[in-house]
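tmp note - Helix-turn-helix protein
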Amino acid sequence: MARPNPRPVADRLRQQAALDGWTPWQLAHQITTECGISRLQAYRLAQGWTLDAAVTAYAAVRGRLTVQQLSAWENGSTRPGEGHLDGLCQLYETRPDRLGFATDYTPGTTPDAPVRPTRATPPPDDAPASREETAERRTLLRTLLTGAGLHLSAPALNALADVRETMAETLNETLSEMTMEQWERSAVEYGHAYQMSPPGQLLAESVLDFVEVQQLLARRQAADYRTRLCHVAAQLAGTAGMALVALGEQREARSWFRCAQLAAEETGDRALRAWLLAREAVIPFYFGSPQAAADLAERARLVAGNTACATAAWAPALEARSLARLGRADDARQAMQIAERAFARLGADQKSDTAYGYTERQMRWHIGSMHTVLGDTRRAQAALDEALTMYAPIEHLDRALIALDQTAGLIHVGEVATAAQVAVQTLEMLPAEHRTGIVVSRAREVAAAIPARAVRMPAVRDLREAIAASVPALPA
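out:
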């Protein structure tokens, strides 16, 4: 049997609580009982708060909290730390056990004793309020308000707040421009966080937001808002795919990129579709299939076409690197020339956008990466050195991949020991949560390129051990 929609049930129970004088704990417990939701969520609904309202109220008590964090605690996917749990207890003026994060072992207490509501079970989610229910609500309001005299009682004030908030929620069933813009900013912020946030965290947060956007798309929306929501959904699914690539989860990453493509097709945005194809091409590029990478990158370039977008430069650069790995030197150089010409046409905003643009540092890195494979070590090292200077120390992923490209160049000129030492240092300096599948895969490629005559060198042995030590950090 389907669970009732918790919000209308909570609205009804709040009015009942105001009439019968329930405590906040009794109200929250009854919401949990009737709706089958967590105690933490029940306490929020007992206040009549949305997630946004609860986060705002929390900020006044304890400090910063995101909607994603609170939602994850409420649905049980994560648990608040000690500091946040104390803040939640302050916010709801209750104890940890009543929020569902501890157990009360006091003898003789029955904290879970059910409240006995005087009203019947709520109607199904989509059923309109009956005439009897509406009349009962009107009578309740009239009694509370006309009998208040000069001072409104707490139950009367609560009833007024319920009426007002119900109307606000009704009006908010469709998106406001402000909410739409917040979703668009959120999608861009995830793109910026890619270099710095641990991939596991980025995946969790982007997917939580994706679920909310999915729910918004399931409602009736204005055509313009639906298109914009599809754009946000494509970006969030693309971000999830990027995080999965970093984690080494190739199959699931492909599925998320294809999901993103479905959303992108609803928007008619060629630049977005091209960006997603280029992102998907990264999977075979780093996981052993340069031909598949070249094919996907070519598709991305063709989809971008003459559109003035970042992927018009990024896709041929990725294609060039893939062709270099296939030994097609002339084709690789030609593709990189296409990339450089397209890059020169990009506007300043696209060259500075680290989320969905194509930056100077990426261009330098990709040129250096191609020259490394083609054996032009001097040009390669110059470009890679220049690229590294443009990254902040906390931008872990690209810095690690650039450093590993440098070690490949060192191996090419015979400096095997130095290359192995740099590779080891790169792995060991990465925070454990960033020592992920894509980095370890590239480190393995570096180790595999070491000549057989050098495999017994101590530095090479250290590299193999560093790679082996990094593997447990990967998801099982």
